[in-house]
């Protein structure tokens, strides 16, 4: 079946602009995760959804970051007033449920460059 | 709070040599441990995971890892590597509190040379 897809694959924007990143999880997966991966670094947890509820938003770096999810489907990560330090690869993953034991399936990522 | 430390940022080895990628973790609760691999220009995929039971876990492509609770380690090993094993390897931990949150290490770049 289809894997996790993300769009766009690359996004170049100017400082101060807003961007929206999209994630389509694997069909049937109720949990969805967003991570940020800066160059040469590990994955930084941002937020996860169980269904369309986000029990843990503690990883969002600032109030410029927000995310929403429609049902158990598409999720959008929005970054307002982008800054150069927001440049990174944003990864989305999904799993059957948001249990710690569940394998996460990752998308290819969106590479965001803020000029 | 949980954390993961991957002790080596880069590991260069020759083809057919054995390799060990080291991972230490900390957590106040029972943990689940994972190794993910990211091949060049590809997304992350699961290599193996420890949930419970036998402390020796076997994964894909001939990799295995051993959970050591007393040393809080989950080192990844392969007895003989191939050029195709060249990739970034990430260790991750999650716990049964705050079940949705996984913590990843900074990654280890394994480079296999001919």
Write structural notes for this entry:
The complex is a heterodimer of chains A (115) and B (114). Chain A has strands at residues 5-7, 10-13, 19-24, 31-37, 43-50, 53-56, 65-69, 75-79, 88-95, 105-106, 110-114. By secondary structure, chain A is mostly beta strands. In chain A, the strands form 2 sheets. In chain A, strands 2, 4, 5, 6, 9, 10 and 11 form a 7-stranded mixed beta sheet that branches. Chain A has a 4-stranded antiparallel beta sheet with strand order 1-3-8-7, with no helix packed on it. The N and C termini of chain A lie far apart (37 Å). Chain B has 114 residues and is mostly beta strands. In chain B, 0% of the residues lie in helices and 55% in strands. Chain B has no helices and 12 strands. Chain B has strands at 3-6, 10-14, 19-21, 23-26, 31-38, 44-50, 56-58, 64-68, 73-78, 87-95, 102-104, 108-113. In chain B, the strands form 3 sheets. In chain B, strands 2, 5, 6, 10, 11 and 12 form a 6-stranded mixed beta sheet that branches. Chain B is globular, with a radius of gyration of 14 Å. The termini of chain B are far apart. The model of chain B has no long low-confidence stretch (mean pLDDT 91).
What keyword list fits this structure?
heterodimer; A: 115 residues; mainly beta; 7-stranded mixed β-sheet; 4-stranded antiparallel β-sheet; globular; B: 114 residues; 6-stranded mixed β-sheet
Oligomer: heterodimer
Class derived from helix and strand content of chain A: mainly beta
Show unreliable segments of chain A: none
Instruction: Count every beta strand of chain A, where a strand is a DSSP E run of 2 or more residues.
Output: 11
SSE order of chain B, as H and E?
A: EEEEEEEEEEEE
| Biggest beta sheet summary of chain B | 6 strands, mixed
Amino-to-carboxy terminus distance of chain A: 37 Å
State the helicity of chain A in percent bands.
under 10%
How much of the residues of chain A is beta strand, in percent?
over 45%
Calculate the mean pLDDT score of chain B and round it.
Answer: 91
The largest pleated sheet of chain A is described as: 7 strands, mixed
- What value does the Rg of chain A take, in angstroms? 13 Å
Shape of chain B: globular
**What is the count of helical runs of chain B?**
0
How many angstroms does the end-to-end distance of chain B come to? Answer: 41 Å
Structural class of chain B, by secondary structure, is mainly beta
Report the largest inter-chain contact.
Answer: A-B, 28 and 28 residues
Low-confidence stretches of chain B: none
Task: Name the helicity range of chain B.
Answer: under 10%
Beta-strand content estimate of chain B: over 45%
